[in-house]
């Protein structure tokens, strides 16, 4: 999809928007995301330490792989997540394809992931499901069967491969960084908690889950997410093909060239942002938070703007809602990030999560605590 052009790109984008567009989020995803978040937070709560980056990646992966392929790691003998981990590790690396290099591992990971997805696709085509709710794979197979459809098995595999990756990797980095930022800025936590407790107070039925209106009303949360994505620069380069010669300040960029746009150059520019290295969600207050603009490119921009931007924000907002209303947490260790240039946490980000009403553990003195 990333390299598709023209009509094919529009067609694939529409398919993806059916899965993660506003209507699907309103109708289908909110309760599912909420269930996933509640179950995971509950299972982490009370453990001595949780490595949040990996835990959130596992959560996002199992959720993404489920809505896309109905793939469940516990029920499958094939380790799709590991194949993606190998792919991700060498994604931006020196292209030296010999055994042992990061690039070689990346290609091997991609090949293994594609083989697993291909076998799932073939199994499903041979034995279509009848009773279960349709997943994205069912829709893709219906498209392949249609007369004159643009969808082929090769395009389907490519699309499914990239979507599984997009669905878990970026959001899990952003979510981990959001929690880290909130940890390090007590005033942000205070404001966030106020916003989410007010949502609970104003709810008519205490048993009901988050509604679309409530999600839309989380204005401060949206600024926290936006500011996290600005500073995170998760995708350090966005590529565009030059379609015709472009003259800029006396230089010509010839048609056919590939240009790399570098979002961090904008996001960290003091001419664009006051004190650009500081995490300050209030800088966005009162502004329309467009997913893509000349000033903000965390989700890219234009006709190729990230198709999952809203979906990923929804997941982060729901996670933060439950985290700040039900739990308190403290940092055990880690949290440093390095860029290779992908964002990684070399020592993880280890935290302990406890229910809010449980007495503070006496051993917490001196640690960074949120409550
Ligand atoms: C914090 C989370 C995310 C970040 C920072 C992010 C970032 C990006 C960026 C920078 C691009 C390139 C845009 C461009 O070329 O202008 C992109 C494209 C894309 N993303 Fe995301 N993404 C995130 C989450 C997701 C999720 C959850 C999904 C899917 C469920 C997704 C699906 C896609 C797709 C399909 C494209 C290709 C769009 C196209 O070519 O039309 N992304 N994303």
Anisotropy-based shape: globular
Distance between the termini: 44 Å
Q: Catalogue the unreliable spans.
A: 361-367
Q: What's the architecture, going by CATH?
A: Orthogonal Bundle
The helix-and-strand class reads mainly alpha
Regarding quaternary structure, what we see is single chain
Strands of the largest sheet, in order across it?
1-9-6
Q: What is the percentage of strand-forming residues?
A: 5-15%
CATH C-level label: Mainly Alpha
Tally of strands: 9
Tally of discrete structural domains: 1
What is the number of helical segments per DSSP (H or I, 4+ residues)?
12
What is the averaged pLDDT score? 91
> What does the radius of gyration come to?
21 Å
The major pleated sheet works out as: 3 strands, antiparallel
Assign a percent range to the helix content: 40-55%
Bound molecules: protoporphyrin IX containing FE
Query: What is the H/E order?
Result: HHEHHHHHHHHEEEEHHEEEE
Task: Please sum up the structure shown.
The chain is mainly alpha-helical. Helix content is 52%, strand content 9%.
């Amino acid at each position: 999809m990333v390299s598709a052009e023209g009509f094919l790109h529009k067609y694939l984008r529409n398919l993806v928007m059916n899965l993660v567009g506003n209507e699907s989020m309103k109708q289908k995803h909110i309760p599912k995301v909420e269930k996933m978040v509640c179950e995971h937070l509950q299972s982490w709560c009370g453990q001595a330490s949780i490595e949040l980056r990996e835990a959130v990646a596992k959560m996002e992966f199992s959720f993404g792989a489920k809505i896309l392929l109905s793939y469940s790691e516990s029920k499958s003998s094939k380790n799709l997540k590991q194949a993606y981990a190998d792919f991700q590790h060498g994604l931006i690396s020196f292209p030296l394809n010999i055994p042992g290099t990061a690039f070689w591992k990346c290609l091997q990971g991609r090949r293994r992931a594609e083989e697993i997805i291909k076998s799932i696709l073939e199994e499903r085509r041979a034995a279509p499901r009848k009773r279960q709710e349709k997943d994205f794979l069912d829709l893709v197979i219906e498209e392949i069967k249609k007369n004159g459809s643009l969808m082929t098995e090769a395009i389907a595999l490519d699309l499914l491969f990239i979507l599984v990756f997009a669905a878990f990797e970026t959001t899990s980095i952003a979510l981990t960084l959001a929690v880290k930022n909130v940890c390090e800025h007590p005033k942000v936590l205070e404001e966030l908690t106020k916003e989410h407790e007010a949502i609970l107070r104003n709810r008519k039925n205490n048993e009901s889950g988050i509604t679309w209106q409530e999600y839309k009303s989380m204005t401060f949360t949206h600024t926290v997410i936006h500011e996290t994505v600005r500073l995170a620069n998760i995708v350090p380069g966005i590529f565009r093909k030059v379609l015709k010669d472009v003259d800029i300040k006396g230089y010509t960029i010839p048609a056919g060239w590939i240009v790399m746009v570098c979002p961090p150059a904008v996001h960290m520019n003091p001419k664009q942002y006051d004190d650009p290295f500081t995490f300050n969600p209030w800088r966005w207050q009162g502004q329309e938070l467009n997913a893509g603009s000349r000033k903000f490119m965390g989700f890219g921009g234009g006709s190729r703007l990230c198709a999952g931007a809203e979906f990923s924000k929804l997941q982060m907002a729901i996670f933060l809602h439950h985290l700040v209303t039900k739990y308190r947490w403290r940092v055990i260790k880690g949290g440093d990030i390095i860029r290779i240039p992908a964002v990684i946490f070399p020592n993880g980000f280890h935290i302990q999560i406890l229910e809010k009403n449980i007495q503070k553990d006496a051993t917490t003195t001196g640690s960074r605590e949120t409550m």
